[in-house]
User: What shape does this take?
Amino acid sequence: MIIRKRLAAGACALLAALALGVTPANAADGPSKDSPKVELVLDVSGSMRATDIDGQSRMTAAKEAFNEVIDGTPESVRLGIRTLGASYAGEDKTLGCRDSQQLYRVGKVDRADAKEAVSKLQPTGWTPIGLALRGADQDLGTDGGSRRIVLITDGEDSCGLPDPCDVARELAAKGTHLTIDTLGLASDDKTREQLSCIAEATGGTYTTVHHRKELSGRIKQLVKRADTPVETPKAVSGTEECRTAPEIGAGIWTDRETFAQHRVYKVKVKPGQELRVAASVGADRPVDRDYGVLVRAMGENGQELVRGSDAGSGRTDVMASGLRYPVAEDDNDKAPRTVCLEVSNSFSAPASVKRDPGLPVELAVDVVKGPDDPSDLAAFGLGRGWVLLLVLGLTGLLAGLLFGWLARWRIAVWREN
Amino acid sequence: MRKKRMLSAVLLAGAALLAPAGTAVADDTPSEAGTAFRTAVAIEQGQKATANGSTGDYLYWQFPAGAGQRPTVKATVTLPDTANRTGAATWRLDVYDGLRRRQACTAGEQAATAGQQAATVALTCTLRTVRPWSERWSNDPLPGAYYVRLTVTDAPDRDLGLPVKAEVEATSEDMGGAHAEGGSLGKPLHATALAEPDGGWNGSWWSGRWGWTIGGAALCALAAIGGYTLTRHPRRR
Assistant: This one.
């Protein structure tokens, strides 16, 4: 059995490899419309001249890493490059804070072109991160495929407004499934706080870079991550009560809910089916230490059917819980039942934290055929243990004795007659 | 057995050669981790998955478990260079079922604090035995996917972002007849990305309970014959 499975796995791998070998030839005209898009946003501000990455300047390290990344980008990924602080060297803040250009358009990578564009960069100006993020979001467009920004910078935003962290949250809330990963080339507290905040707001990651190898390795890893197929959630907007709730079906859904708010959705479930729901509420900003999430399934009349909840404390990315609700077969009533799902959270945050947009909610809904009537909790109703043997043995013995005695008594009666 | 294994290895190697350069061929052991439930990387039981990440990342994997199994998840984190670290860090391993419900760890060290000088930190979590069915109100472990989340829960802010390496392995123990239960689910919980574990989602139909029950029946029959022989009228000729 195991052997057969292994062989099958081998054969599958072979087929998969053959399929992979064939696809690029068919797709000669570049990646498809739904292929993942990644934009690398590189800080080219004056401070990138500092020489603290393995004895090289930050700029040189970044250029080398970019060359490696450009070489290693999978065919299926559309890659773009944007710079910030690359052209205006003056002191005028208004001009310096508008300095962010697209260096290489998001699309199929022409390796030579992209490398040449990168090689010309010289550390120059200001650090308008917020502006660059907005620009990168526009560069990525909205024509399908996963969207990822990799921000490489060595300093905090020197422009102040717009606050890059707010920009990140605003972009994430647009419902276009944007992830921003940040890499910091300097490890001062302010840069780290800002970059962590940007990453946290969009479900991305933050990395401090001390060595050249770490830089190229991490960017390559992030580009590869963008290439991993993943189901894109659909947006839905839940309401306060069941009556007005939007109806959703099987699939993955996203929504937003603010602190101490709940969102309600409706699902239709036929008798004989089982509703399965997993809900998570993300903590995409600083929140108070203790928190929780509750997901309830309710009937149309407001009766609670079943609930799932979880609570926690400390650092977290999401709080999740789920439930299953099988609807029993009913010969008299085959109409689908409406189940209302209520997702609520007990996150709270210090007064300084922005409330709007709300926390990201993700719902994974599935409706499957569900038997829910085990005839016995033991396997096939079988028994087990010494007590069982004792009971069976004694019962057999008693029955034997009884029948033996009956037989004896019958013979005695027969003899007398 | 070994020969067959060799054969499949050769097939895999052949596949790797046929694939064009630059295209990643699915490796046997995953070397990546997901960053959310939705992107959790699928691993098999007994497979040692590795991943590079940064301190502060939330690393997600998922593995399959069937009824009658008691899974144990082990994780080892290789911490960043001691020179760059500024203090102790607490790492934590959380396991969720396919419906993202938190699962209790019945044994093992789920969270551990590594001192500033420590090179690695090891975490383990043993779940309850997976049941083939449970009442809808309970969150007993059921057949299907299990998510593993590994992260640092408490570390000096300065240490966030430093590179770490994580290794995760899920194994399970077959709990035998004592845990052989009836009932079944229509489908395992959220297991589309996973291969069925050895022994199937619902466990094997065979269990020690068959032995006990058949043995009991035989004992019953023997005892009955014995009892009958003891009491019936001795036959006289």
Notes: Residues 209 and 215 of chain B are 10 Å apart (CA to CA). Chain B has one domain: 25-224.
